[in-house]
Specification:
42% of the residues lie in helices and 14% in strands. The protein is built from seven helices and five strands. The protein has a five-stranded parallel sheet with strand order 3-2-1-4-5, sandwiched between helices. α1 runs parallel beside α3 and α4 packs parallel to α5. The radius of gyration is 16 Å and the shape is globular. The termini are far apart.
């Protein structure tokens, strides 16, 4: 069974909570390859004492990079502790990331409770493969020339 890839992302007010969560679930995260954006990736790396594939900070394009990795099939699940009470200057990027995850049938956890359910799922540590979407009808559609 190939190792699964998880993206761990958090807004500033949720970074401490995500690092604490990752420490509690360090054993469950051990067989997974971890990806992270900017500071979150660094904090997870320091907190767990293990490598994290770090991308740009979210507002600098990291959310879009994670979305790109999802579209490429490189990310199997997304744990994104987002702050619903704090406006984000890169909110369109966040919405795009969540849209791509939904489009490509990638499981998403947005808080500690949903992340607990996801990380404890027996599906995570077996050969489960989410259904890959078929975009052939969309890709081969005809549109008016313009």
């Amino acid at each position: 069974m190939a190792s699964k890839n998880v993206a761990l992302v958090a807004h500033d007010n949720k970074k401490k909570e995500l690092v604490a969560w990752a420490k509690v679930h360090q054993e469950h995260l051990a067989p997974l390859t971890i990806w992270g954006t900017g500071t979150t990736g660094r904090l997870i790396e320091e907190g767990l004492g293990r490598p994290v594939t770090r991308l740009l900070s979210g507002p600098l394009g990291g959310d879009q990079q994670i979305g790109s990795k999802i579209a490429e099939g490189a990310i199997d699940l997304l744990i994104f502790f987002w702050d619903p009470l704090e406006p984000q200057p890169h909110d369109p990027d966040i919405k795009a990331l969540l849209r791509i995850a939904a489009l490509y049938n990638v499981p998403v956890a947005c808080n500690k409770a949903s992340a607990d359910f996801m990380i404890m799922s027996p599906l995570l540590h077996n050969d489960y493969q989410a259904d890959a979407p078929d975009f052939s009808a969309y890709a081969n559609r005809t549109t008016p020339a313009g």
